[in-house]
Amino acid sequence: FAFLVPNLTTYLNAFQNGCEAFQLPSRCRVSNFAAVHYMEKKAGFRTKPHSSFLPSSAVDLEVAASVSEMHDESNTKTSSISTFEKFDYLSHWYPVIWARDLPSNRPTQVTLFDVNYVVAKRVSEDSGPKKQEEVVAMLDRCPHRSAALSEGRLTAQGSFQCAYHGWSFDALTGRCLDIPQVENKRSIRISDKKKRIDGTAVPAMVHQEMVWIFPGGGLEQALKAPPPPSVPEIDEDGYRIVSSVVRDFPIDWTILLENIMDPDHGLFAHQVEYFDLYSASSESPQDVREETRHGGKGWSVTSTTKAVNSILEGSLQEKNKNTESEIKPNTFLSKERKEDDIPVATTTFDAPNLITMARRNPGTGKTSFAIAFWICPSGTGKSRFMSANVGKVPNFLKIPRWIGHVAIMNFLDQDTFLLATQQKHVLGKESELVLQYQKLNSQNEIKERNINLSEDTSHLKINIPVRRKFYVYQSPTERLSARVGAFLDATLSLVPNRLKSIQNLGGYEQVMQSSLISRSQVLDRFTQHTQICPDSMEVVKNCIQIQSACKVLAALPLLVKVLAFGNSNMVTATASLLHRCIINCNGFLAKRPVGIMGFWIGAAILSFLANKLEKEFYYKYTNDYRENDMDKIPSLWKDTV
Fold first, then answer.
1. pLDDT confidence of 195, banded at 50, 70, 90?
2. Considering the entire predicted model, what is its pTM?
3. Which one is the CATH code of 61-76+237-528: 3.40.50.2000, 3.90.380.10, 3.20.20.70, 2.60.120.560?
């Protein structure tokens, strides 16, 4: 919320000098716009809407502008592990759901770091044409019997109500407001000095069309933390989000991050030439620069290279020649340009959750199209993937959201199972190193500090060099991957609940002996996407209804003929009119057998198409699809060995 305030520095200084500057209660856990409104009233100023916030995490355009430097040795700003020593995962905001996917006035469960939260979008019914919306969040646990608040409801007053015994909580503060079984609420409040009857509220907000929550404490901690990272183009005039998608993966969020920032896999895993524009080579080296902000709490890294076909052209072109016919890259992507006009392929990772990719103008740093990825660390071995295309697209070209979902689901399926096969090794090796650390230090640091790895270890920093020891970086494009790998190795021990879950895996050998989840489970679109996307779910429901209607329509001519032979004397006066209509329809159909046949064929085609579309939202990418994709690779990269 602080970053919504016009004068950020003054405001933060005032807050850091004491909550009394705004007369906020010391235990204040107010979240969202309520806090902002409270501060406006006390401080006497108005805040700006979040859309006007300009990010401090914008792409380093100085790098993009210095194309001439790329002709020389790639200048990588390296740094030691100490670069990340102040990084705190709990001091960051995390996107958990698209705001448009969050139903109004209904609690919804989201997961972050293996902890469940309940979020809701409160919509005022009496605010006129423009209804006032506000997002709220709490730990998804009722303090009474630990039942999930997400299984309950939102009251008319906007409070979370537990479905078990009806306890109600202020969604902004977590304060218990009502216990139906107790008459004298005041006596309980007085006797409950430790606030055990209160729930735990979590700061929440909407930023760039997404719901973000802050897991690191209340309002005071949220104000001191780095603001949510932004995609600059989303807030600029003329740009809009073309498509937004969400999918839950049984893939560790660290592996998913590395996969997205690895353009080299595009030619082989996806059979797409576009990725080659982000790959580096000896002629187009990758420049990697990183930035530490917010007193070390914020960290980002940006890679830049000339947006040319690095693999399909350049020094590797001769290697990739077909003796009968040369494999030619996409002419649109590889058309000749003047050196100063070549776009800069830019990839920025704003830790811990945002990746932005775009081909930017070397002089201005501008782009007409960018792709953004938000990775929510749901927990060890799982993640929530959210992405959006951002560009200058006219409104009349707007297409239904679900069409984009079908395309991106097909794309994501191509390499997700590969990541599942990789995950066993990576998490197994991480577990092995954690267990080794525990064993080596059992008589030293851990014993002296009375540390139990089975408990919360967010205060314990361990360097876990999984990627440094286990990965083999060779590609010129992997300079970015190496820096991101160093960041993960240095900070993963600080991820909430990570060490406990990693330790429970039992080490590398035990992980490798466990069975790999099946392809159908890894690529189950229905549970991972369709059920949590209202647009896709609506398409599935419509497809089912269309198929049912087509079956009824196809049987209608037969039904008419059967009913036409009924005895009119047996029908009541009320049904006589219907009976006469059936007789007339029978006569009409008897004279037009071709029409009946066309009717049946049309219904069958419509039902077939609806069934075909419905299947796009379930498990689809079987081994046959995979083999078909593998057969496409030689058309891009010739088999030479």
1. confident
2. 0.79
3. 3.90.380.10
